[in-house]
Design a protein that fits this description.
The chain is of the alpha/beta class. Helices cover about 25% and strands about 30% of the residues.
Amino acid sequence: MKHGYLLAVMAVSALLASCKTENRSLPAVIPMPVQMEAGKGFFTLEPSASISYTGGAEGAAVAEQLASLLRPATGFALNTAEDSDGDIRLLIDTTGSWRPEEYGLSVAKSRVTLTAATPKGLFRGIQTVRQLLPPQAEGSAMATDVDWVMPCVDITDYPRFEWRGMHLDVSRHFFDVDFIRRYIDILAMHKLNVFHWHLVDDQGWRIEIKKYPRLTGVGAWRVDREEQPWNSREPQRPGEKATYGGFYTQEEIKEIVAYATERYITVVPEIEMPAHVGSALAAYPEYSCTGGPFTVPPGGVWPITDIYCAGKEETFTFLEDVLTEVMELFPSPWIHVGGDEADKSEWRRCPDCHARIRNEELQDEDELQSYFIRRIEKFLNSQGRRLIGWDEILQGGLAPEATVMSWQGFEGGVAAAKSEHQAVMAPVSHCYFNVYQGDPATEPESFTGLLTLKKVYSFEPVPPELTPEEAEYIIGAQGCLWTEYVTDGRTAEYMILPRLTAFSEVVWSPRDSRSWKGFTVRLPHMMERFDAMGLAYSKGSYSVEMTASYNEELNSITLTITSEQPSPEIRYTTDGSEPGPVSTVYEAPLPLDSTTTVKAAIFADGEMIGRVNAKTVNINQATGRAVTYNIPFNNRYKAFGDKTLVNGIRGSGAFDDGQWQGFEETDMDVMIDLGSEMAVALISSRFMANVGSWIFLPEKVEYSASADGESFTPVHAIVTDLKPEEQGSRTEEYFASFPPVTARYIRVVARGLGTCPPWHAGAGGKAWLFCDEIIVE
């Protein structure tokens, strides 16, 4: 027996061991099939193997896709032929009762047979065939010393939901055609069937419209401010050239739609309206309420006040012209029109909009938005298409045939279903992959928030308050990737994987068959495939979380180490060294009575998985002491109240982790009672900036000391060097050492910004100041 065969059998044995029932081991397939029964033995794909098919040209296309997937890594010819006796047989069977996209797969020692009623079902099935082969099958170069064996198994499989989607925003950052194809391939391997292509937003118009060339000539380009934080970017100055951006020609779009169609993926274009249209109005300001001028924003905009004028007939002529060209490019039954986050301030000031409200006998601007959407829907319906929009299209009354994409929560989908409208669930809480998936200190910069792999897997698209009849209107769910902080394809891959993998099981597999523990065992095998494909992905789910709690009575700190992985082997150190396979195994919370840095990581079979996480607990002269707040903290971010700043526990990179204390539109002014007079030579405090969340570093931090708590002597002051527009997302230590002074009371004053600067998206709004810890030595 060949050495390569032994390795292959070992690999398949590991794959089989990953998913056990009471009697037999099952292959590690994601998403989990509806029914799967393990057989005995293996099928070996030999160099002489062939693929046969039925179903004419469509069957031939699926057979060729499977062959094309396997040829590079195997080096085999894998000839395809119709109605022949192939080693792998793809059969169209229109007899009997088949569900949409259903397939049956039988792997025997002598042959692989994949059967479906449609080529679409065959295509879903070949994604499972891929996962039964060794992971090297996903590589682009021929693998050596690998025998291509598959475990014998019988599978019956079909999806739970009709709409299994993934979104990509190409407005905030432009992604080239090659990456769009790669993105579609990722969706296809996860058995998703909708690609929601967000082509239009304030920061860029990405689709060629021949009747309106300025949409791409002007709207596709903005000034390059990529070195500045997203929400701190100065608008385009007069005479400044816009050079950052790009767009897709109509020919490129046709190619991408055809590429997706070959993979049985529907491309749903999104053309935003009535708001999120700054790029369009920069090109054609006459369709606004004010007439402009406008420039394409280089960064964040809030509130979204640039809006199409709903009172001008010319606006609707323009939009119908645009949508006509869009529909010629996209055969999708649905056209997405956005409809979200429309600030109606301009409509309230606009005489044309007032006239429209009077003439149409509308109550207010919400009903004007409903009129706007209904009118667009009527046009789309006349062309045989259906309108879908974000859940704000419910405002003022829902258009008669509209489908709601529920993003703000579950409520929009519930409201749509109860009114007998279809809904796609995409709640930000479970489906927005543009937020952090692990500790912000170790992850790429993202939107504030945390969406772990486990939380994605816990997602249930059908809200419990719906009746079985109402639940039928929930046609599926969708993940979303907004790209304000995603500038390239590698980062996009990292942000969606493996969260998309968890999501795929949510929307495909039966609800009762889902198991977080089982999924976590199968996931490493999918990650091996990602490695073979050269995909970037996060191991954030294999990180540990360290939570410290302060015991006021004992004046000590207890550190708890956890992970979302079931039964992980966590090893840690307390001497500053990196943990290794022989480091102490974590078994119970750690009591700490002195300043300590704990480092921990997850291990399996002597190898570290994921990253090392470190947490320093600072026990110092201020720890546990009484704190007087001369200016109160904001109760929204009170953390642990008056012990937060002296509990020895640092916060993470997330301001809402429960360790950061917030002060809104004011300074921070606190006094610490050290209990008795002592020599003080060091004071330190730490603050956060998260400009996108209206959090800024203090302009200045002042330290002073006192013997009686009444008369204070300044000991040090630190001025922030970074301008607010340069701060982005960071934490800064304000460290001061000085000749020893005798004091019982320490006062720390941090001068806040008060309000957001004029260049900020929230200009004039209340600015925040966040602090997590004060150290005194």
